[in-house]
Amino acid sequence: MISQDVTNLRKELNKISEDKETAFKKKEDLKKTVFEQIKNIKDLIKKNTDLRNSLNQTRQQRDLLNSKTKLLVQSIKKLNEQNKDSLSKLKSVNLNLLRNKLNKLETRLETEALKFEKEKQLTEEIKNIKKILKEFKVVEDLSKEIKTLSKTIDDTKRQADNFHKKFQELNQEININYSKIKEISNRLMEVKKNQEQSFAEFINQKQKFSEVSRQLTSKLDDLKEQSIKVNEEKKKINEIKEKQKHEMLQEKQKNIELKLKSGQKITTEDLLILREDL
């Protein structure tokens, strides 16, 4: 029946409409997800660019400090060698005794009336002692310089180590971000694939909706045409019934008139029939 077909088509159309809207909503949600994921990737790329700049600066600072440390180590080696040579020469010398001896000799030279040869001898001895003390002064200065340089090397190494640690941390963060970019990119490909499928499903449901709508419109037209034919048929039937009723009434009235003419008795029902319009 056409009416049942119309009912079924309307149900099918409603179902297709719901499926179409579901597919459209899913497509739009996935589209939003795609934009968000692309933004996340761009943010990570920018962050990695900034980190890479910091990494390069940190590498340069670390390398400069390492180079400086290397030069300082070479310098302290030379100083240690010099100090070692000087110490080996002065190993057997008692500095305090030597200073006391110098004081006594200078005092004697200043206070005593010495013969020329003796004065010359004392002067030469004082000169030698001062030379030795001067060498000791060189050793002391070298030791101080070595100590200062050693501290500088420690500080420089510590700074280089800190920059190297920072370099490793930056490099690790960059690698983590690259992993995130790769992970998001893989998810993005899957999301785009689902988006394409949802869009294809939306188009399919849209086409089905159009087709079922066309079928429903056609069925409604058929139903309307059928309704017109049914009404026309009913009208014809009613006209036939009215005609038959009219003819029957005429026949009854003729019979009653014959009864009147023949002097027969008529009933109340006969009177009512006579009063009806033909």
Shape: rod-shaped
Report the mean per-residue pLDDT as an integer: 79
Total beta strands: 0
Task: Kindly report the oligomeric state of this protein.
Answer: single chain
Compute the CA-based radius of gyration: 61 Å
Tally of alpha and pi helices: 4
Describe the biggest sheet? none
CATH fold type of the domain at 19-203 = Helix Hairpins
Q: What class, by secondary structure content? A: mainly alpha
Q: What are the segments in which pLDDT stays under 50 over at least 5 consecutive residues? A: none
- Percent helix: over 70%
What share of the residues does DSSP label as strand, in percent?
Answer: under 5%
CATH architecture of the domain at 19-203: Orthogonal Bundle
Text of the CATH class of the domain at 19-203: Mainly Alpha
Order of helices and strands: HHHH
Question: How far is it from the N-terminal to the C-terminal residue, by CA?
Answer: 41 Å
In short:
It is built from 4 helices and no strands. With 278 residues, the protein is mostly helical.
Question: Could you explain the architecture of this structure?
Answer:
With 278 residues, the protein is mainly α. The protein is rod-shaped, with a radius of gyration of 61 Å. It has 4 helices and no strands. Helix content is 93%, strand content 0%. It has helices at residues 2-89, 95-111, 116-261, 268-275. The chain has a domain at 19-203: Orthogonal Bundle (Helix Hairpins). Helix 1 packs antiparallel against helix 3 (116-261).
